[in-house]
Design goal:
globular; alpha/beta; 8-stranded parallel sheet; 353 residues; 4-stranded mixed sheet
């Protein structure tokens, strides 16, 4: 089986990010600590940094945190034994005490439960990762004199659209019924952001908040139960796409390379304490249309199926969640792929993996 890093289209994505007019010198000879290192966003980000190390002499050391050393060894086999990569098995909910690291320049907290079944089956872990895990990362960053931290937040912090906005800008506050199990994910992300502001004020830390929307790409985890991920897995298997609702939900999506590119713009150019939406109009789409694009790309059809109780409990109640990204575009970011191109690339890469 071909490793992702050997896939021509995947390597093309890495190169496109690496060619962005970013102040890459800010990462030169620096140390980057990344939680959620084997996840959809973290793994591609690490591949980009390792490419820059190899091709442009960036000499940026990556300390990757994750639960499974076995998974990390398989995913990062190409760089696992190099001096610029170190993996540390770690549960984000436990204090992170290390005396053998010295200063760490940048801390990126990307670890989180990010799919519906996890919200429904592990609601405690969902909340604690976003609050206790965030505090553990911020405490580590403070003790190790990090220059800057990034807390990966989510479009879910906006809650349900109250009907007063077509798109959510960074100051929008929708409705969340906090007295529900499903509120655990968005409310804990909101609390994580508030915790960042507390550390900025009380400990004078430099923290930025990229707000990611529904992200997808060939780095998706096979355990992911988001609708997009399920659609893509069905397509790869040559099966009909199963839609478990009427499909009128209208959401923003972001291809993996655009999401990581946005994250880097926020990390390297964003203003301290600010939040930035990572989204693009060309990837806003209704769920039923998304299902049809994916089905058509592999010559299959869309079929309807009633979701089971566990699935239903984890689903977002938001019916329209489109993000405004003018603030991020003001830093110079623009999306490289629209939804059709992103889907096409994802399926092509995974079919040839």
């Amino acid at each position: 089986m071909m490793n992702l890093i050997e896939n021509t289209l995947y390597l093309e994505d890495i190169k496109k990010v690496a060619k962005q007019p970013l102040p890459w010198d800010k990462l030169k000879d620096r140390t980057l600590l990344i939680s959620g290192a084997t996840g959809l966003i973290g793994s591609f980000l690490i591949d980009v940094v390792m490419y820059l190390n190899r091709e442009q002499g960036l000499n940026c050391r990556v300390i990757a945190l994750g639960r499974s050393e076995e998974k990390a060894k398989a995913r990062f086999a190409y760089c696992y034994e190099t001096a610029q990569f170190q993996f540390i098995p770690y549960d984000i909910n436990l204090p992170f005490e290390r005396d053998d690291m010295g200063d760490v320049d940048y801390v990126l907290h990307l670890a989180s439960n990010t799919h519906p079944v996890a919200y429904a089956t592990d609601p405690i872990g969902t909340i604690t990762t976003n609050i206790i895990g965030t505090q553990n990362m911020l405490e580590f960053a403070y003790k190790h004199h990090a220059m800057r931290c990034a807390f990966a937040s989510s479009n879910e912090i906006y809650g349900e659209n109250r009907g007063d906005a077509e798109k959510f800008d960074e100051h929008y506050c929708g409705y969340i019924d906090c007295n529900t199990m499903r509120a655990g994910y968005p409310e804990s992300k909101r609390c994580g952001e508030a915790l960042c502001q507390a550390y900025i004020k009380q400990k004078e830390m430099d923290i930025v908040i990229p707000r990611l929307t529904r992200s997808y790409g060939p780095t998706l985890l096979m355990s992911d139960t988001k609708a997009m991920s399920q659609f893509i897995r069905k397509a790869i298997a040559g099966e009909d796409i199963v839609l478990k609702s009427e499909g009128t939900q209208y959401y923003s999506y972001t291809y993996m390379a655009d999401a990581v590119c946005g994250l880097l713009y926020v990390l390297l150019l964003g203003e301290k304490g600010e939040a930035y939406n990572i989204a693009d109009d060309a990837s806003d789409i209704m769920l039923k249309d998304l299902a049809q694009i994916i089905a058509s790309s592999v010559g299959r059809k869309v079929v309807f199926e009633i979701p089971d109780a566990v699935e239903s409990a984890g689903y977002s109640k938001a019916t329209k969640a489109r993000l405004e990204s003018q603030k991020l575009q003001g830093l110079g970011w623009s999306a490289m792929y629209n939804i059709e191109d992103g889907i096409k690339r994802t399926i092509s890469i995974l079919q040839n993996k």
